[in-house]
Amino acid sequence: MLKVYTGEDMQNAHNASADVIATVKILAKQLDRENDNIDEIAPRTAPAPNRRVGLTDQIIFVDDNPVFNFGKHKGKKLTDEKDYCKWILSADFDEEIKEFIRSVI
Q1: Max CA-CA distance within the chain?
Q2: In angstroms, rounded to a whole number, what is the distance separating the alpha carbons of residues 29 and 35?
Q3: Among 64, 75, 76, 69, residue whose Cα is nearest residue 97
Q4: Residues 6+ away with beta carbon under 8 Å from 71
Q5: Termini Cα distance of the chain
Q6: C-alpha angle with apex 94: 91 to 96, nearest 5 degrees?
Q7: What's the pTM?
Q8: Number of neighbouring beta carbons within 10 Å of residue 64
Q9: CA distance to 7, 82, 84, per residue, from 76 (Å)
Q10: Under a CB-based contact definition with an 8 Å cutoff, are residues 29 and 6 in contact?
Q11: How far, in whole angstroms, is CA 87 from its chain's centroid?
């Protein structure tokens, strides 16, 4: 990946220091690309303040409806995917997400 982003060949692959330096270089190039298009990207990826459940963006609000923001049901309302909600309640998800789902279904 270093070659793809920077044109540099990777030296000392799997050496912790070399891997960290390569990662930083790749991240810097990715951020440069994103910053070039930030006006187009930000409105789609950043939910409005207080319009998500918990500390993650796994459930967000769209037109005052809670919707999934991940997985195979991304973009679908919680109320339309009750089986998926039940699966989340039995899986390893944040307790705040589970409490919210219990309150909705």
Answers
A1: 53
A2: 10
A3: 69
A4: 84
A5: 44
A6: 125
A7: 0.52
A8: 6
A9: 40, 11, 11
A10: yes
A11: 20
Encode pLDDT of 1-35 as tens digits: 788 778 888 888 888 888 888 888 888 887 777 66
Find out whether 5 and 25 touch, Cβ atoms under 8 Å: yes
Positive or negative torsion for Cα 22, 46, 38, 40: positive
Given a contact cutoff of 8 angstroms between Cβ atoms, the answer to whether 50 and 40 are in contact is no
What is d(CA 41, CA 83) in angstroms, rounded to the nearest whole number? 32
| pLDDT per residue as tens digits for the range 48-66 | 545 888 778 899 998 889 9
Burial 26-52 (b: 16+ CB within 10 A, else e): eeebeeeeeeeeeeeeeeeeeeeeeeb
Neighbours of 13 (CB within 10 A): 10
Q: Residue type for 62, please?
A: V
Which amino acid type is present at position 60? I
